[in-house]
Specification:
Length: 445
């Protein structure tokens, strides 16, 4: 019952001619995004990086949000603190939360090189940020006196990686997280490159007793474990032992399956049923997505609405990519053929368990069985994905609904003709078709 917007893409301020004005630009869209049904915005890193026109994934001064003249300018690539706070306030007013992108390891832009006496190597590890907060030297990085091993995870781009076991670093990371939640008003965290550091620090930051509006507050937390299903499973097990199983992971295995669905017309749709995706095994811990800022040349280029339809009707917490919604024009408001229609389907109908009714190389049919309690009434739906490129396709399936009329509520493909209504027989059987290289969603009426 929630939909996230990744509210940026790589070099977005430059490409949209909004350098230093991205927070204001996103704020202009907030009211419409709230009306469309978005629940939260995932924002890029807010801190000053090694250059004021950096995307922020190479942090220099964690506590400079665009108010100190350093690293080539005063504002960050996105704006300053006042503009960020105005965006957060406006998002909250329109019913949306905000997730901060947390880069806790690879730092850049140091002011001096220095020799690490533990290994005699010279590195750029002397940081004197103008905010005056979290100055650091070689002992804040690996190798450090506080750790016997070089580091707990993988290296990234040769940047110096923080040693979180140093009390100075540990304290700074807690203060930074507290600052984002309690002072700026963020509602959760997306942790970048979690391969690069120990899961324990995420668990501890997640379980800190934050206070918002005079009440204890538990943030939403999701990690970027860019790996296969087994590695993600192991990471989720490790990090959730430290919490109340609150931490999610982006579903990279599902995303690569969906790329094949869209970009390989002969892809066997039965691969969607094999359980390799996070959402199939741990739906409560899956953040599903189609593309993001890191995909670059690996972005999906064909029939992308097939992928969006899949994540919007299944379990998991779906993330919509700003570039697709706006720059690629896939929002398609006030039509049944775009992301806006899928958001409506997600909120109003996609409740209860997912049950696969049919799967062959070219046709996938699933039902959400529905869910109802005192605050939620989602009656369920039928979802059809058609891989054939030249014709409508469907087959008779046995649903949970006998003698039930169904109306199409969202569809798209190489033919956008309006699908017909369907009615099941006394045993719940009916045929549900979808357009060529497309999908159709039917809801009980």
């Amino acid at each position: 019952m929630a939909v996230m917007m990744q509210a940026f893409y790589w070099d977005a301020p430059k490409h949209d001619n909004k350098e230093g004005e991205w927070w204001n630009f996103v704020a202009e869209k907030v009211e419409d995004l709230g009306k469309a049904g978005f629940s939260a915005l995932w924002l890029p890193p807010v801190s000053k990086a090694s250059d004021h026109n950096s995307m922020g994934y190479d942090p220099y001064d964690y506590f400079d949000l665009g108010d100190f003249d350093q690293k080539g300018g005063t504002k960050t690539f996105y704006g300053n603190r006042a503009e960020l706070e105005a965006l957060i306030a406006k998002a909250h007013k329109n019913g949306m939360g905000l997730y901060a992108d947390m880069v806790l390891n690879h730092n850049s832009g140091a002011d001096e090189e220095e020799v690490n006496p533990l290994d005699g190597q010279k590195r750029w590890t002397k940081f004197n940020p103008k905010s005056g907060k979290f100055p650091r030297d070689w002992n804040c990085f690996h190798p450090s006196r506080y750790e016997q091993v070089m580091m707990e995870g993988e290296n990234f781009a040769g940047f110096p990686h923080l040693c979180h076991r140093n009390p100075v670093v540990y304290t700074a990371m807690f203060e930074y997280a507290r600052f984002l939640i309690e002072e700026l008003g963020f509602d959760g965290f997306r942790f970048d490159f979690v391969k690069g550091f120990g899961a324990w620090i995420i668990g501890l930051l997640a379980k800190y007793r934050y206070v918002k509006n005079d009440k204890e507050f538990t943030p939403y937390v999701v990690g970027e474990m860019w790996s296969g299903g087994e590695d993600i499973e192991q990471w989720l097990d490790k990090v959730n032992k430290l919490t109340d199983t609150q931490i999610a992971a982006f579903d990279f295995p599902l995303r690569y399956k969906l790329k094949d669905v869209c970009d390989k017309p002969s892809y066997d749709l039965r691969n969607l049923t094999d359980g390799g995706a996070v959402v199939m095994k741990r739906p409560m811990h899956a953040a599903t997505f189609v593309d993001n800022h890191d995909m670059g040349d690996n972005a999906i280029v064909n029939d992308k609405m097939m992928a969006y339809s899949f994540i919007m009707v299944h379990e998991g917490y779906p993330s919509i990519f700003w570039y697709d919604y706006y720059n690629n024009g896939l929002a398609r408001p006030l039509t049944p053929n775009g992301i806006d229609a899928l958001i409506i389907a997600h909120h109003k109908y996609a409740g209860g368990d997912s049950q696969i009714l049919h799967a062959d190389p070219d046709l996938y049919i699933m039902q959400r069985v529905g869910y109802k309690d005192d605050s939620v009434d989602q009656p369920g739906l039928i979802y059809v994905l058609n891989n054939l490129g030249d014709k409508w396709s469907g087959t008779s399936v046995k649903t949970k609904w006998p003698n039930q009329k169904f109306a199409p509520i969202a569809w798209d493909g190489h033919d956008t003709a309006h699908p017909d209504e369907r009615t099941t027989d006394a045993e719940g059987n009916s045929e549900f078709p979808a357009p060529p290289r497309g999908f159709a969603i039917y809801a009980p009426v």
